[in-house]
Design goal:
This is Heme exporter protein B. The chain is mostly helical and about 220 residues long. It is built from 9 helices and no strands.
Amino acid sequence: MKPSLWQAVKLVFVKEFTVGMRFKAAWAAMFMFALTTLACVSLALQGGVLEPRLAAALLWIIIFFASMAGADRVFADEDTAGTLLALRLYGGAQPVLWGKMLYTFFLLLVLTIFITPLFLLLIGAEMAAAGAFVLALLLGVAGLAAAGTLLAALVTGAQVKSGLFSVLMLPIILPVFLPAIFLTAASLGAGEVPVGFLGGMALYDGILAVGASVLFDYLWYED
């Protein structure tokens, strides 16, 4: 009996999680980058307090570049190990895409949960709108996961994966990245929270996910 789409997605997610826990290359790269950056911020501040807008921009810069250290490996590791062809033969395009996207979202969410409290503690920030702050983080991470999964598949086989991945990623994620910075700054006390930005981020995340779903079929079954 052929498994349903959800069952197939769950199988891909479990496979990604199992492999990730076994080898931990992506996890180690992202968390080491995050720790190094947070240590540099701590040393530079020396107990000082950042202005909310600057703090928000710095937080998202750390999240973005930390995610770049591991998100591009979602297809590259299989290409290196020689298992990508087997996945093409036995895995449908949509289950592979959504399973890997779900795993990437989980990976980036754990990274964000690790970074954010430490960052807020280091800068001594006071939260003015916790709900908007959490929603901005979730929508921002969702956008990074959707765009990152598709681009990781697109640059698989390229000679300079990491550089090409970062160059392509930034312009695609800017419509999520900039509202996330404004929402985070407002949540830290830099004025009223622009609630409309949350709807815009959710809409763009949906466009990214649907666009990735449509384009991935052509990419996956390309000769």
